[in-house]
Write a structure and sequence with these properties.
Elements: E1 4-7, E2 15-19, H1 33-36, E3 41-45, H2 65-78, E4 84-89, H3 92-102, E5 107-113, H4 121-133, H5 139-150, H6 157-166, H7 172-192, E6 201-206, H8 213-221, E7 226-231, H9 238-241, H10 243-255
Parallel strand pairs: 2-3, 2-4, 4-5, 5-6, 6-7
Antiparallel strand pairs: 1-3
Amino acid sequence: MLFHRIYRNEKAQDWVVFVHGAGGSSVVWFKQIRAFRPWFNILMVDLRGHGRSAAYGGNGSAYSLEGISSDILDVMDHHGIVEAHFVGVSLGTILIRTLQECHPERVRSAVYAGAVVGFTAPARVLIAAGHSLKYVIPFRALYAVFAWIIMPGPKANEARRVFRREARSVRPAEFRRWLRLTREVHSKLAAWSTSTDRSPTLYVMGARDYLFLPPARRAVANDRSAELEVVERSGHVCNIEQPAHFNRVAIAFLRR
């Protein structure tokens, strides 16, 4: 199964499952562990093809959003975790949303950091460029360009550095598989836009997340189960750029 880490709190009953995005690993949550441990049991996974799950190809499940999400459930089942709160970042939020749709009984609530709920015109151009150049430009160079476009400016230096470092464990073929998943993501987002009956969800978005904040605002406005927290002086990966703010609002939401 997926490589995973567990941090147990014998005084806590609730579990929080952390789900990273494409090209990352569970390491992207290093600024959350200390803050969450006093309140929850914690499960962190390295997704298929990422981090220390780089060689894991799935337990016979399809390379799809549902298949990759089922990898997470396999780990939960192995440890007897019936339900949990989920915290995801970037494309990890898509996997949590998949679980909310397909296995709602497993998701008590969710926190989306840098949520991907729609694609602006610049984001669509970026994805199209990725499909066109994936066999032309070396993977790591292409990923570095993507990281700069999604997380621009000096304030996001640390977040870019973390993601570039973790991307070293991702094989080029794996990156191309995840890039192909964007087509499924696009179709799923269109279907989900009219589905709002799900577990309570908090969107935590950086004020400078110019690619993904506008769609998140529209999604929350039309979803009675969702709330929005905009983090000033932060971009796409707000859990790294503004960890104190992110931890405070996320923990308060999950405890509530």
